[in-house]
Known about the structure:
Structural class of chain A: alpha/beta
Helix content of chain A: 25-40%
CATH superfamily of the largest domain in chain B: NADH-ubiquinone oxidoreductase 51kDa subunit
Oligomer: heterodimer
Structural class of chain B: alpha/beta
Shape of chain B: globular
Amino acid sequence: MAKISIDGIQYEVNAANNLLQECLSQGLDLPYFCWHPCMGSVGACRQCAVKQYRDADDTKGTLVMACMTPITDGGIYSIQDSQAVDFRSHVIESLMISHPHDCPVCEEGGECHLQDMTQMSGHNYRRYDFQKVTHRNQNLGPFLNHEMNRCIACYRCVRFYGDYAGGSDLVALASHHHVYFGRHEEGTLENEFSGNLVEVCPTGVFTDKTFSAHYSRKWDLQTAPSICSGCGVGCNTSPGERYGSLRRIVNRYHHDINGYFLCDRGRFGYDANNSPQRVTEPVFAQARINGNSEASAHKSMTALEAARQFEAMTGGEVIGIGSPRASLESNIALLQRVGAENFYPGLSDGELACVREVLLLLREPGLHCPDIRGLEQCDCVLLVDEDLSNTSARMALALRQATRNAATAMATAARIPPWQDAAVRELAQHERSPLIILSPQGTRLDDVASDTFLGTVAQQIRLLNAISRCLDPHFDAPVESPELVARAETIAGALVQATRPCLVSGISAQSPALIQATANVARALRIRRKGETESPVDLCFAMPEANTLGLALLAEGSANTLSAALSRLAQGKADAAIVLENDLFRRAPAAQVNAALAGQLPLVVLDHLHNAFNAHARLLLPAASPAESNGSWVNYEARAQSAYRVFAPKEPLRASYEWLTPADPVQLPLIGSEEILAQFASAHPGFAALRKLLTQREGLSAVMKSPRQLPRYSGRTAMQADKHVHEYRQTLDPQSPLSFSMEGVPLQKDSSLLSVAWAPGWNSNQAISKFQQEINGELQQGCKGVHLLTRDGVDASYTQTAQLSEKTLSPYFISHLFGGEEISAEAAAIQARASGPYACIDDKRARELGVNQHGRIAVHAGELSVTLPVLIRQRIAPGGIGIYCAGELDRFTLAQELRVEAVAEEPDMLLRSREMFRHLLINDSWQGRNGA
Amino acid sequence: MSERPLTRNIDMSREPYDLLQYRQAQGYEAVLRMLREHSPADVLEMVKNSGLKGRGGAGFPTGLKWSFVPTGEHAPKTKYLVVNADEMEPGTFKDRLLMEGDPHLLIEGMIIAAYTIQASTAFIFLRGEYLRAEKLLRQAIAEAGAAGLLGPNIQGSGFGLDIIVHTSAGRYICGEETALLNALEGKRANPRAKPPFPQVSGLWGKPTIVNNVETICNLPGILRYGIDWYKSLGKGSDAGTKLCGVSGRVKNPGCWELPLGTPIRELLEERAGGMSEGYTLRAFLPGGGSTDFLLPEHLDLTLDYDVIGKAGSRLATGTMIVLDDRTCPVGMVGNLMRFFSHESCGWCTPCRDGLPWVDAIFQRLERGEGRQEDLSILEEHLNYLGPGRTFCALAPGAMAPLGSALRHFREDFEAHIGSGACPWQR
């Protein structure tokens, strides 16, 4: 800590930071552009100039850039000094020289950092009366608009895109006042974090193209704190609604998880909410009762009729199948309705087996599950199998930052402060902390990897066991080849040398053996480190869906599996079945699901999008989407977080837990998500921690509700005037501490329910600094969620891992960020980036099969035969074959032994596959420092 | 002993000395003795004590600059020497003379500098248009390499040096030492923040010394003839000789090696032969395009860093641009502003967006459409683009001729306003 004086007032500040950051931490208004809390200082824009005085006798002072000025104890500074004020007004004046007069039609208007800073710097009239510089814009793909004429050349975009997120196709071009930020040629921005440019750009150069399609001003959007349902990370989001449709998603700061950044699936997948695939009314398949399968016999119902039908159909013993993409409340409601013995987690058997392993590991005292910020601090990472960039992308972004810890260490040794971003990068060059990747194919993180090992799951397990053996000689592992042992020794060495080593994997491979082998390495590492440190070893597993872990927790202690449920259905060993928000064709072999359907039990499905499975429901109940319902979600760390509905769903939509709770569903108020959680938490000691989540909420709603609408929310009295001249009554929301109105406790200082950051003079998202305890710190009064698990287990000894056969040709399954997740895949912009199913093979196999790049092969597994376009990659596991199912192929049947053969090429098919592969971001030149 | 250690071998009417001729003229003797007799620390001490100041423009003491390079056990093993041969300062053509006239002198100097900081790789960052210099340097490097004067183990000394000639793609900003390093790394030629200085974290993050061609060419003389001799070369407070050039309407434009401390008048009247027939001296930029104008009353000042500094300008590159009485000063400065505006790298706001505004105003003045307010906007820019305001020295350099022009030629600026055309062209 250091004491400094700014404009005569004493402040106690953190001496490790720069002056700008500390001014902002103290709540002072000092304009800036190029500095970003997460990206440090480069001194380009010169907007944050202040006066620095040598000592108390110095009356003249020197103009310095606050962002480039280290704090010195006893330092004397002035923001208000007239020379500094004058200089800052000059800077903003020249930044605005070529900026267009288009605020009224600019989509950034009203949440524009440039507007805010211009006002703060006091620039009004343009004195520059010459021709402006203009630019040609580029089509950057389905996610982003490009309006270079608005650019003020702060260089933030390229620093985020290239330096922070590892993208290579957005660069600064040309020089002097013609400097241009774009691609070398028009085309889709490749990086999976491109959407953050919308928030990183201080003005309207990069704006959200999906938002443009149904644009609304920031202040006209109704928002609520929400949790992304795109994967198991649990990023905090702020979705915005207007006129009953979801308009966009922006980042909501969470200190431990997403910080300032979201992935593009999370940001642009929201449009599934507005998809024509939405289930908008109850669908009752009368026909099926009569044995007539004509679709026209489906009957629409009101909510009341549907609720009665639901009750009528689900008497007696009912099988309930839960869902990892439904909220904890909905799963609890189903569990309570059908009873624990009839509740089946709707995870595939493989996933369930994996998650059960993970739950044990999350209780083991010798291990620790890092949050995203924790991942960023690790100085050696062993990433096992999981293609994080395509499954839990935010974690991949964190690992990319973790590789920079070596740079920070070098900088500290060279007395360069870590916030001197350009200087640190310059000093460290390509020096990175070790990131070792074990994977069946080249991944997007390979460019920062220190070592990559391409191997099938079986091969990876052998290497992992060898690593455990290197770490702990008592570990019982089979004797391996000298090459593999040498490799294992190098990796073990890197783990041992690290101060904070970390192991990361996931359950995408659906292989419990892989999870056990990974855990064994963590245990062996802990044993090896004993004596030096008692701190637990970081180990975490990415979860594919927003509530995978929550669902598994609910089903813990039960032996129920999905196949058991399906065979009960097939054998008719129940009176009915309820399936909650789940497409079972994605969870089990099609033959098994079809057999279950053939059992002809009355089937009720609750879902918000039509899919292949719920088309078979006798009664399909329209469920509110996550944006339309309150709910809690348990992320990969077992952290439960609350999301609030952004807007009330249209009748007859109900949240699944509302449909499922057997009160009279017609009477208002319907059961609240809080009631469900509270009751469940009191009845189940294992979930007692949920009460803390509720207490956090109760504290909030005790006084007065907080508004979902900003004070400037317009058109409230007019927006329904086409239907009725009288103003409609506001929708009530007894279930949450938020109201569907502009009235209530404003959230200007309290960030516990903060969905949109706003502070006087700060209309853009940069206002978040006003809600942080310090820059990059915790939110004041923030709700961080609660951890449902404690480390109350026992330190397990090593788990024996099954030796997997390496003889047969069984595929590995490829994940894609766009299209790989069920719900976001329905968003139009995501679809524009998605590909269909394909197979991936290496050169050798391609030659054997006689198939060319983008040609086709036939794949046979059991009774299943499919023809797939082929992607030939240099970097895949020797002898491996990858299959991307795109939500269409039956992964479970394909997981058996495969037979492949070439199929004659047809020119138009070749063209079509080529077009499809164009969307995929695959670069086999990334291969880590040591290659593979 | 020579009074012209930099140019003693130079005769532009013939080809420069090849290795044999250069060695016959005692070339490389200093290096060979250094490798035999002196430790790097000795050489550093010698260069420090010689009083040699950087000849690229800033005039920073060379020995002091070198002393910031970390040494000892924990210092990075890899270090680099970079010679700044990107001579793009308007009116400057002195390094070209050295490289085209005596390329081995530069190589010898580079061996000395690299030895002192223990760099085993050195780069010559050469202005792309200097095709002849490139050819001659490459030849000389090949000759020196073949003779064992470059390479892994020079003359069995255990010290090795490779020299790589890198020709620039051509931006003025590449003359800024940190932008030069970025360009050399293949990045955008934007300057870097200082600190850290290149001596600590330079090329590819390694300790790096960047010196101007002329600075390096001073080293063989210092080592061969000693500090006292070197100091005695200067007539005034500064040590050594300086290449001085004159361009503009003089009888004999060119470049000469003069002792530091020589009166400007001697340079202009004796060497350059005075003003051309019919032209009178109006003012001059003493050290290239980014220095302040001095007036005829300053002709008796001596060519010393401090003396010129006290008069309100800079000796900088020592290459004088002469403004005569029949050339429009507004046009001359406007030309410079256009150059500097175009050469801004685009990194920091005041330079990127300020200089084009200045340039646009000059164009309007040239057309005779200027307004009185334009002059106050120009004046505002002097402060706005002044030292410490911008990321590097490019814009403050550009403001030097502008500021002094506004002071000295105010009536010429006024005469342009509302006149419909440049008065000099009517």
